Amino acid sequence: MNDGLGHLVVDGNEVLEFKLVRDQDDLEDDKTSFGPEMCHQVFGENENIFGYTDLQIKLYYSAGNLQTYLGISYTDKIDSKKFGGLKADDIEGEIKKVLAPGYVTNIDQFVSMLKKDKIFTPYGKLIQSFNIESNNGGPKRTFEVYYCETSTPGFLAYHERLQTFLLWYVDAASFIDVDDDQWTFFIMYEKYPSNSLSGTCSYATCAYATVYRYYAYPAHLRPRISQVLTLPPFRKLGLCANLVKTIYSHFVIKPEVLDMTVEDPSQDFQRIRDYVDAKDCELLPAFQPDQLAQGFSVEMANQARSKYKINKKQARRVYEILRLKHTNTSDKIAYQQYRLDVKNRLNAPFQKKKLEMKKLQKVLKPDEFAATLTALGVTETQHRLANHYLALEDEYKRVIHRMEHY
């Protein structure tokens, strides 16, 4: 900024500190801290905060029930009288808009909440439990997934606190309408020993997903996974893949469910979904190597839907991943056949556009036709499709690498 006020402008991402607090010792342990990935949905597009020196914003949640503490500290604040009425940004005012009611600004009050958090038990119905190896060679870690609906007693107040994480980690995030009872929720917790002498355990919130049960004529459902978030301290553990498997397991046994869909998946989530679906489908008869070499088939789509509720579009993607997995890329002919198969699918919309262009060429003057080609970006489309294939193959290889090593 001009007038020597640049030192009063800070990047909100750099001054925000998050914690999932299990006990009071975590408050002083830097290892339990993590930051946001974005803050433009709270502080504006440029993500800056103005008016403070040595600003720190602490947003702490009790690990289980997510009771919330907001702490704002600084050594100095702009004097609006000295700078023509310029005021410091209202930090608490902006954060208050997105936090659930009931947050506290007194750290001692928050510490007192931690005692109650020790006896917190998850809402809803336990539907999955699994263990993973500890990174430090200690005992296995236990994780549990609970299923909730909007009618689950006490859950909506907890969810109101949980969904606030979306704004810091999911671009274009929005809060769902919990008045609609077609929403379902899958919450993952780590179950950890809180007292070795008594053998009692406590829970820490790890990840969650929301799924909307869309109606499908005449008497079916087509569940759509909407929001999925693994909190930063629990990433790189394979928890999201386990959460997706749990969601599938919940719906796949229901005869009224046609198939599963995903609402605008991020690249990271699509990769996890591909991994889960490909691991499942590679066991099906229709997806065996000899069948894959013959191209995508109706039987593949049918088996994927019947066994795992995978929709046709995703089944095709799984086919391409598995065919690449079983294609010897050193065999020029086999590799070329694979590339042509995928490119033909990618080119289908473009081929349709070319047919439309031929029709227009017959009725337009040469200069008008040339202008139309430019306006529709036909040449650029061909270039984009080539890049699309290369990017897609790279994504597929990442999925295959995970399949082969995990």
TrEMBL record:
Residues 273-324 form the Histone acetyltransferase type B catalytic subunit C-terminal domain. The active site is at E263 (proton donor/acceptor). This is Histone acetyltransferase type B catalytic subunit. The record marks W183 as: Interaction with histone H4 N-terminus. GO terms for biological process: subtelomeric heterochromatin formation. It catalyses: L-lysyl-[protein] + acetyl-CoA = N(6)-acetyl-L-lysyl-[protein] + CoA + H(+). It is found in: Nucleus. Residues 9-171 form the Histone acetyl transferase HAT1 N-terminal domain. One of its GO terms (cellular component) is chromosome, telomeric region. InterPro entries: Acyl_CoA_acyltransferase, HAT1_C, Hat1_N, Hat1_N_sf, Hist_AcTrfase_B-typ_cat-su, Hist_AcTrfase_HAT1_C. The keyword Nucleus applies. Keywords: Acyltransferase, Nucleus, Transferase. Its EC number is 2.3.1.48. One of its GO terms (molecular function) is histone acetyltransferase activity. Its main location: nucleus. It comes from the Eukaryota. Belongs to the HAT1 family. It is an enzyme of class 2 (transferase). Residues 45-47, 212-214 are annotated as: Interaction with histone H4 N-terminus. SUPFAM superfamilies: Acyl-CoA N-acyltransferases (Nat). It comes from Leptidea sinapis.
